[in-house]
Each structure stands twice: as C-alpha cells, then as structure tokens.
Amino acid sequence: MGAFFVYMLKTAVCLVVFYLFYRLLLSKETFHRFNRVVLLAMVVTSCIIPCIELTAYYSTDLNRSLLTFEEMMEFQHTEVIEEETPVFHWQSIVLSVYFLGVVFFAVYKLISLIQMFRLFRKGECMSDADGVKVLVYNDERFSPFSWMNYVVLSRKDYAENASTVITHEKAHIHMRHSIDILIIDICIVLQWFNPAIWLLKQELQNIHEYEADEAVIRKGVDARKYQLLLIEKAVGTRLYSMANSFNHNSLKKRITMMCKRKSNKWAMLKCLYVLPLAALAVTAFARPEVSSSLNEISNSKVSEISDLIKSESVKNEVVKEDTSQVFRIVEEMPEYPGGTDACMKFLGDNIKYPENAKKNGIEGRVIAQYIVGKDGEISNIQIVRGVDPEIDAEAKRVIAMMPKWKPGKQRGQNVRVYYTIPVTFRLNKNSDAVNRQTSGSTPQVVSPDQEFTVVEEMPKFPGGPSAAQEYLAKNVKYPAEAYNKGIRGRVIVQYVVEKDGSISNVKVVRGVDPLLDAEAVRVIKSMPKWEPGKQRGQNVRVKYTMPVTFSLQ
After folding, report:
1. CA distance 425 to 354
2. Helix, strand, or coil here: 194?
3. pLDDT tens, 518-550?
4. Which of 19, 248, 403, 426 pairs with 125 at a CA distance of 20 to 30 A?
5. Is the pTM of this model over 0.90?
6. What is the DSSP letter of 550?
C-alpha cells in the first residue's frame, strides 16, 4: 500500500508540472484535437515516469565500517540484539487518509454512473440512428448532455432546438469524449488530493466543447444564433459530472474560441518543451535524497495506524532522550582512548594474576560485560562467563580502573552502550611468568593450515584501521536499486587473511539485502594484501570479521 501511495505522489508531481506546461504554452491555441491528444498523453506519461529507474551506482559515505576488537569478540561469543526499528506513524496517518479519500470518490463516481444509467432506462427514445439513442424527458431541470451513445434532452429542447443540440451532442459521441472523461475520472479517484488533475479535467472538457462547437459550425449552423442559444441554455442545471453537457460552464471561453483566429501550426512544436521536463522528473525521482525519503512512506502500512494509539512514536531520524535505554549495536561503537592496542596494553599492564589461581594452575577466558555511558564512564560491570571467583574479581577490578572511553553514538547523539570484552588468563608452562592477554587462548602447536580467530598479532590493513575505512568509503558503490528503495544496514562479512596477507573464503555472516551483500563481498575481495597475523612469531591464517555499513545520507 505504501509503495502504491509513493507511486501516486510521484505521479501527482508529474501532473502538476505538465499541467503548468500546458496552461502556459498550449491552452490558448486553436488546434483542439492536438491539444486533446497532448493532455491525454500527459496523463499517461505521468503514470509511466515514476516507474522508470536509472541504472547507476552512487558513492556514499560509510559510517564506521571496520569492526573493533570488542565487536569481533561479541559477534563470535555473544548474541547480538538488534535495535528496534522505529515506526513512522505520521506516514501511516497520511496513508490512511489517502485511501479513505480514494474510497469516498470511488463511491461518489460509481453512484453518479448508476444514477445516469437509471435515467437512460426511463427516457422516451425518439431516435436510434447511427448507433446514437436520443432520449427525451419531460423534466426541464437539466441541460442537454451525452454519455457514450446516449443523448439526453428535455422535451422543450427537443421541440425548439433539436437539430442544433443533437448535432452538438453527436459530435461528443463520435469523437469518443466520454472515454476521455472516464479515464480522467479514474485518475481523479486515485489523485483526488491533487488540484492539477481536477484542472486537467476542466481543460479537457473545454477542448471537448471546442471540438463540438466546431462540428456544429461546420454543419452550417449560424455562429451568432448558436452563440445566443448557448447563452440561453447557460442557466440549465448540470446533473452529472461524468457527462458531456451542452451548457458547459466555460461559456465565455467557448464563444471567444469560436471567434479566434486559427493558430499557426508551427505552434504545435511547443509540445517539445515537455521532453526536458520529463527528463528532469525522471532524474529527480532517481535522486537518493528523494527516493530514500519516499521509501519511509513506501514501507508504511495502513494497519500501522492502530499502533499509534498503543505506543509512542519515534520521529524520523531522531533518537528520543531515554536515560534507561542501553544499546548493544550502534552506528558508532564506544572506543577506548587510543584504540584497541591501547586497551590491550592497559589490561596487560594492570592485571595481576591471583596467587591462588596461579598455584592451582587455573586459567581460562573471562567474558566481562559493562556499560559505556554517555560521558564515557564505565558502569554495571558483570561477568557473563567466569573462570574462577578470584580471576573474575581481578578482571572486574581492572575494567573498573579504565579511563573514560569515547562514548558510542546513535544518529549523532551519545548513547549508553553494552560492551563485552574477553580477558584471557593463561599460565606459561615453561616458566612461572604470567601471560595476560585479551586475545584468547594460544595453541602450543601451530598447524600450517590452521585457521585462527584470535592470535598474538592480529592481521592489519596496510596503514591501519583508518586507512581501511578510507579504502571502503572510496571503493564501495551503493547499488542503484538498493539506493532508490532506501535499503540500508550493516553487512557482516567474514574472511580469512592468509599467511601472505591475501584475502580468501569471503562470505556474508549476516546480510541485509542481496544487492548490498554482493557489493560488500566484492569490495572485501578487492582489498590489497594485509599485514598477516602472527602466532609465536610465525605467519598464520586468521579468520577476520568486518562490518560494512551502508547508510543513506
């Protein structure tokens, strides 16, 4: 439903632009049949243009594409809880109002059509020549009109002006004007909110009357007498908006057009101005600034209106202040001052292996979780997975000593974020020295084909994390189809950094959309050789995980 409404919005914009073009350049010209074709072509073109998509790639900035050490460990050892997607309630309200309007006008037009066909069954048929039925009524409330192959007029008009009136209405019938009105009325049902479609119908009805008036004059009817008849019938009541009425209310325009000098046929070339307008509309709708905004409405549903009553809405691209909310994954994760290496050094310098644990040969990895506050303070330290009470307590003690972190951010605002970090306590079997690291257990034997997840020296992109981010930002190309549809999110890619630094075994661990997933894999495969990871001084194969975030800006 939302996608259809977005299509209607785009169509509405096209109709407004084309109507203004017609009104300024063609509405005063006298080649009526040509103008009629142009108006109908504008309606059709307005329906086609929103369906056109430009095939292109757009470059876009990537929000923090590299995976920090903590995130890598969290993805492999803990369950990631997604942030709840906001519900855009205002789009649902607009969508509901739109479809209520569609239903109202559809019922209104249907009732008008039913009443008109009921009227046809009650009239006295005075003629049935050339497939045109002339129906006469005693009721004089309405002015003569025609619809499809029916001509309706009062008995008084039939007695006094039958020839002229019937000639006029038959011109409407032979030129299929009723079909034009039917097409425009269907558009009005769908575009009821758009003033341009109502004005286009008025222009089209004017053209219909101009054509019918010309047909009457060509039949030899005196123009002055015909104009006086129009003035006389101008006071009649027009009962059916879908019909072609003899006393169409643009009387002044009709008389002016009858007296006007014929336009030069070269003036028809003005219609060529519509081509750059159409190209401009296609380009505008293909722009990501437009498509991403409309996509918010496209993803909405009419049923979401009920959610507005039950819950508080989160406004588009704004995070409401909620001091109790704690995120697990945000656009900009918290960072230790100086980065991952500085964090590892801090832990290595400050952790003291408990004597009892050392004597008893207790070792293992403690998984600790804590909250990095909006000001970077560490709080709520908990042991998610412990090894020994003394070792667990030591891990908590050192984490509590950490300096303030750079806080995490979501949509530009500092937020509270859960952070998980592993602290591995391992005894060196060859001495009494304590080996403390944050990178996990180390095997005693390094196999040539073994894939490590964490090693003593992790692989590095040439130039470091900032260079990797810059590489991704320059080389990731947002797929046009995904960009136009407003598809965004974080693709988690896993791969192996080989002993020579080359990349292999690239696969998507958590995808967003096939288009974005494929682009993330492509750009990871295209990366230059890394500095390989090392274990016990030897180059080893290391499994690496990296997120590539696609965000619309």
Report:
1. 10
2. coil
3. 999 999 999 999 999 888 788 999 888 888 888
4. 248
5. no
6. E
